[in-house]
Specification:
Elements: H1 18-31, H2 33-74
Length: about 80
């Protein structure tokens, strides 16, 4: 099976067209301090939420282990 990416086609200059929109967004983000600050706040909120979810899952697992140990001791 011959799978070719856009960048591997003959005569291609190495620029992948789908990256153009990402580059525009990144350039706008870097150039606009307010947009950058809002984006950083959103990213921090995402990270904090993910950390909280991980802690909740760890606590649930810990409680399950404790319950399993108690059941094991009773038997």
């Amino acid at each position: 099976m011959d799978v070719r990416t856009e960048s591997s086609l003959p005569g291609h200059n190495g620029w992948i067209s789908k990256h153009a929109e990402n580059y525009k967004q990144y350039s706008a983000l870097i150039g606009d301090p307010q947009l950058r600050a809002r984006t950083e706040e959103k990213m921090q909120a995402i990270v904090l939420n993910a950390e909280h979810e991980m802690k909740v899952q760890e606590e649930v697992r810990r409680q399950e282990v404790i319950r399993a140990q108690e059941v094991s001791r009773r038997n």
